[in-house]
Amino acid sequence: MNTAEQIVSPYGSWKSPFTAELVASASASVGSVLVDRATNPSRVYWLEARPSEGGRRTLLSKLVDDYSDATLVEHLADPRWNVRTAVHEYGGGAYAVHNGRVVFANWSDQGVYLLDTAQQGEPKRIGSMDDRLRYASFAIHESGKFAVCVCEDHRNPTTGAPAMLVAIALTESQEPRPDVVLFVGADFVSSPAMSSNDDIAFFTWDNPDMNWDATTLRRAHLLLDRGGLPIGLERVGVVAGQTERESIYQPRFDSEGTLHFISDRIGGFWNPYHESAGGEVVLSLAEPMEAEFASPEWSFGESTMQPVPGGGPRVAVTYGGKDGQSVLGILDAVTHVFEELPTPGWSLMGEFQFGTTRSGEPVLVLVAGGPTEPPSLFTYYINGMTSTRLSASSSSSSSSAMADEMAGFVSVPRTIAFPTRLPPLGDNSTVAEAYAYYYPPTNRDYSAPTGELPPLLVVSHGGPTSAAHAVYQPKIQYWTSRGFAVADVNYGGSTGYGRAYRERLYPQFGIVDVEDCCAVALHLSATGLVDRSRLSILGGSAGGFTTLACLAFRPEVFAVGASFYGISDLEILIKETHKFEAQYPVHLVGPYPEARDVYRSRSPLYSADRLACPVIFLQGLEDKVVPPNQATLMVNELREKGIKVAHIEFEGEQHGFRQAKNIVRAQESVLFFFGKILGFAPADRVEPAVPIYNE
What we know:
Blueprint: E1 7-8, H1 20-26, E2 29-36, E3 40-50, E4 56-63, E5 73-74, E6 95-98, E7 101-105, E8 112-116, E9 124-126, E10 133-140, E11 146-153, E12 163-169, E13 180-183, E14 188-194, E15 199-205, E16 216-224, E17 230-240, E18 248-253, E19 259-263, E20 271-275, E21 281-283, E22 305-307, E23 314-320, E24 326-332, E25 338-341, E26 348-356, E27 362-370, E28 373-381, E29 386-389, H2 394-405, E30 414-422, E31 430-439, E32 446-447, E33 456-460, H3 474-480, E34 485-490, H4 499-502, H5 512-526, E35 535-540, H6 542-553, E36 560-564, H7 570-576, H8 584-588, H9 596-602, E37 615-620, H10 629-641, E38 645-650, H11 660-678
Parallel strand pairs: 1-32, 33-34, 33-35, 35-36, 36-37, 37-38
Antiparallel strand pairs: 2-3, 3-4, 4-5, 6-7, 7-8, 8-9, 10-11, 11-12, 12-13, 14-15, 15-16, 16-17, 18-19, 19-20, 20-21, 22-23, 23-24, 24-25, 26-27, 27-28, 28-29, 30-31, 31-34
Helix pairs in contact: 1-11, 5-6
């Protein structure tokens, strides 16, 4: 439709093909990609999360060079099976595969199961068979006789869920078989990787650090009995992280036994390294780069680096820069030569695994996406430098088709840098720079009345040690196609910009993030891109805290806000949250109880009297990361004060909504609430209407 044929209608009221149902269907995700390199490197496996099935994660596979559904298999179609682990609450690394045999953790009982994909039988429970033990980060020995994994022990509630590295025999048994404990002595352990000569590498860390603060890379040798089963470790040593304060990720052995990993030891950026034959840590690049080759490991199984099979010291890597674009390449760790590979504009890449086509050609399997293309499963032929989508899964195929159909409705983001201030805030504050992705309102069928500026939605990502990415997201297009401008903010504390930038938030959580989210909103309004009187903000989890803190401590900036399972009381969070994040607030805010006054002064709950604009709260009732009472306490305060507030709770949801019906309800409810407050009538009919207190 050309400009003359467009319907003139106020921003926010545009009719959009990005329905809440489409947002929910796009929430289906492809991840946890693995290749069965032992005997069938032509078959790739992955997990698909399905909101239409209550968020269940099922296991699928197909041949790496099959670009149809001809070889597609769903291995766990029965809804009883949900390949998901509760270790660290965020999970990840919930399965491994070897010779067609899959070992996996099942959500309902957290048990470890063994599935032979060549047989028609049911998965069989193996190992300790104790529901109080949780398992993740599986790696199967090349013999196929056992798996090494992380075990989180919840048998004694007074011991704080100690973590261990254990071995589990991959044999069926009617009786429980105790795990073989390989390593204890650290608060956390992650990412075991084994070499062909039975060396093993993994990393550990201790409270109060998170793994992006400081980790220790360890290497040892497996001791096996006469039957080839492990009985312990010998020659346990430290490769890196003992004397340097560094964050180390993704230990990998190449075909020659060299250990590769990613660290931020030089310059604060995650760069690739390897261990030399003499045991020295060597930078694999010609020189350090101010670019991130990894991201923070909130969940197990991250993979942005993978050795090329049979390629000696060559590894496939990806890195991102401040411009939001990502680069793919092959790095020779010895010669330091980096060969950049062309990509179709991808801004996000991960889940790297190497497979082999049926003709014997090496192929990189990965999940990738860009500003106009949703993250999907791809193969990349590193010799021919070409990529092809493996579009077999329902989520990747439907999302990709949706992207093609929505071309005239898709807002393409641009990177913006904007001025902000660093604490202590005041007239003499240091001026700095922060970053965001700006999405303009986009709908080929509509234009706004002359002179009207669009409302702005500021999105504050969770974490807070995480990042926004310039990748196609229907949940953002839902707003831009209705006439909103969106700023997806990488406030100080975000990743992707090096350690110094992410540590701006230490111990300034609730100050730096708030300042940056307010600064981007005011910057965009000052430049004439958005309506100053219609600034809104939305965030989930830690981003929900930032949202509430902006509304409470900078009430002059925003007109309305939405908190998805957000934190309102930092003190309750440090008292009640799970082990993985139990000491996280020590860095973000300060030691507790010594800094109790700081916790309370930055908690929106205790400054609810300063909050002067309406808020909608959305909360899962089974959330163990942010307890539901956080939302309830804040809602009660606002109701007593007489501020318009809505509160929607979801049965059966944990931290983040996984069920399609709840994703739809949440999306539509926020649009309905924002329309009531900002004065526009959405084209969508919301049923049932959202109850608003004090309306």
